Each structure stands twice: as structure tokens, then as C-alpha cells.
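With this grant's support, we have settled on a layout for protein records. An illustrative entry appears below exactly as we store it:
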Amino acid sequence: MSIDHPELSAEFCKRLRDAFLRTGYDADGVVEALGGAAHAALGRGEPEPAYRATADGGDLGTLIRLFLLGATEPEAAVAAALAPLPLADAAGAGLVRAHGSGFRAALDVRPHGDEDGTWWVFSDLDSDLLGGEVPEDHVLGVGHASLSLIRATTRRPVGSLLDLGAGNGVQALHATRHAERVTATDVSPRALALAEATFRLNELDVELLRGEWFAPVARRRFDQIVCNPPFVVGPPRVDYVYRDSGLAGDDASALVVRQLPGFLAEGGIGQLLASWLHVDGEDWADRVARWLPSGVDAWFVQRDVADPALYVGTWLRDAGIDPRSPRGRAKAGAWLDWFAENRVDGVGFGFVTLRRTDALAPTVVCEDLRQAYDDPLGAEAANWLDRVEWLRAHGNELLDTRFVVPPTVVLERVDTPGDEGWEPSVRRLHRVDGPGWQHEVDELAAALLAGFRGALPLSDLIDLLAVAHGQSPEALTEAALPVVRELLRHGMVVPA
């Protein structure tokens, strides 16, 4: 059997699942076997504490060393740990391979969990375990990008969901928690084979289709689409299928943003990771807004901007290429030359949330969100869309609306020494949940928000503020309305 396109049958996966359940090889079992310190060390790329913690770990210890540490384990120990899956079948299918006097993992299969339970995910061995560069059809494991998209995805119940460019299938796994029907596509036969094995191993029914971009689902509509596309930007080439589209620059992200809304049902939501170029003399927000078709609410969130040299070095190492080697220097040189020729100052990275709408004036917002925060962005994205919809329906009624400031919003004040003692220099609203929005406000805005207690409509509060400060109500109204709209979009004020 060729291991270029693994064929891990339903019976094979059932027996492997039985082995994992018998040994406790799941997310909780691994953490318990390793202990907190060794588990944290393994996450930092320091395996020795994990070797020590699993030395007397029986079958579970063998599986941890085999699949998570890349160790060579004795034949008898591997056979015992994989039972009832015969070792010969595991080797024949390309799950393990003989190495010296023992066996090593030939595929990566590891637990991946959420608050509701554990799955297992098949992928290829990374460059560290391979000991060198990954092949072109490498199927990536559950990395930081995958995890960030998982956290940024809205989890409200939907009927149908498309995972475009599914890779190992981890986005589709999470989708089965909230979607009645899940479809996963990929251009890579190897990725589809491993994703199919992942779904079999977890006893999940997911429709799998092969093809480029949206071609496999032509003329279909979905309630939700998630996508972790090959978003690496640079020259138009494909070195690795999991990250390179063959399109130049940020054209892959542009393609998905441009075409995705056409495959959404009315009111449907699309969420993806994306990259965009920061070009000399061009605003990144203008660039990405031009990608949008009509009839789409869009929220672009920029999480990071990378220097071109750092960007190139990071992706070379990701593929197992030493940037100091002749091959690494040649690839880096060609990549940096392309950036220079195209006047690229940086590479932006972030999340895009799209909603198909029949509104005459869709909302498009592009904003930086580079501060650290802990709460998942998915719930915030859903609430952001709700608030946009509320503003669309009630935007002309703001003056008649009673507002409150949520208890998760605080006013921070920075005072500096002055001629008459401490004088306030900065007033900042800070939402301490979600993505931690912050807005600087002046004295009048802070005074206005102090009245947001749900008792009086905005117009009355403005009139009272005008009298107290000797200001024109008309001028205060003109200044207040855009501030209230922005704060409402960020959940820092809400209708009472």
C-alpha cells in the first residue's frame, strides 16, 4: 500500500480507536500521565521531562513516546500498546515504520480536545520529527494558526457548514459540535486521506470533496463557511501545498474574500484567516476593503504585522529549511527580492468575518487588534454582527434610546503633575472582557457616559450635559453620535 495517499480503513480506525480508549490516550490522559510541568515543557519543545514522566507509563507511556516524542520503541511494546490493532497492519498502512530494532511513528496522530471532549487528529510528522525539510504534499498538524481560527469561529448552531481547505480536518471536527451537516474540501489527495481517517477515527460523518477553491461546491450555499487558506504571501509558486497557493502576493486571501460570500445563504457567515500586504504609500484597510463584493458586512481584524525579513525566516524554519544554508539563503534572497520589487513594507495577518446581507449599506470595518487578550474572538465576532444589525435597524433612533455601560467596562484615568497638583491627562474606557477594547475619551464624553444608567434617553442626557457645561446641544449631539456608534459596535455601551 502506498503511504503517499494513506488508506486507513474504517476497520483499521475502529481498532486504533479501541487501542486509544483502552490505554487512555486522550487529551486528559496525556496531561495526567505527564503532569503539569512535563506537559508544559513538551509544549516548549523540551521533551526530557516527558520521557522521565512516561518511563513507567505502560501502554499509554509507549504511545506518548511514539507519537508525541518521536521515539523509537521496542517492537513488543508497540504491539502491546496498539492492540487490538495488529502491528503488521499499522506498519502496512504507514502509521508506524521499522527503525533499527524497534518502531517509530510514520504519521502524527495525537489527541485534540475542547471543553466537551477529545478527538484524535491525523497529520504528517513535522520537520523536527522528520529531521529535515517536509515534502511538498505535507499535511500540517494542529498548529497555532489552526488553533487561532478555532477560537475565532462563531459557534452558534447552523444547519450546514463548509470547511474550505480542510487540511487535517480539525476545523471540521469543531464544526460538528454546532453544525448539523459538515462538508470539507481540499485540493490535496493526501490531506483528504488523512482528514477522512481523522473523521473515521472519531466516528463522525463529514462529506469530503476534492478540488480547488470553491469548485467542489459550485452552485451550493452554506449557513457558515470557515477557511484556513494557503495564505503565505510572496512569489507565485507552490513549494508546500498546505501554505502556498501558486498566486502572487496576497491574491489567495483576496480570492477567498471575494468569492466566499457567493456561497453563503442569506445571513450566512464566513470566517477565515488571511494575510495582506502593507505596501509603501497604501493603507492596508483600503487594500482589503477593495476585495469585497457587494452585499457583505465585513470585519477585518489585524492581529500582527511582520517585517518581511522576519516573515521569510519564520516560514523557512517552519518547513525545516535552515536559513543559513545555501538553499535557505537562495530561497530567502528570491523572496526578499520579490518583496522589494513590490514595495512591501510588512505583512499583515488576522481574521476576517463576513456576512451576506441584503442591506442597502453594508458595514465594513477594518481595525487593529494587536493587544494581548485571552477570550476567544468567535463569540465577539457573533456579537459584533448582532450589534451591527441593531445599529442598522435603530441607527436613526439613537437619541431616543436609553443606554447602559456594561459592568465589564471601566474608566481608567492617568494623572500627571501640574501647577495645581495632579491633573488628568488621559481618560480611557477599557472593556476588560472579550478582546479588551480601549477608547480614549475626553471630559465631556466621560460625563455623558456616566449618565448611561438606563433611566434617560440619549437626547435628554445631551441636553443636561449642554446646560451643565454651557455647550450647544446641537454641537454636542453632532459630536456624541459617532462616539456612541463606535462604542456600541465594540460592546462598550448597550441598549438598556
Summary: The chain is about 40% helix and 25% strand.
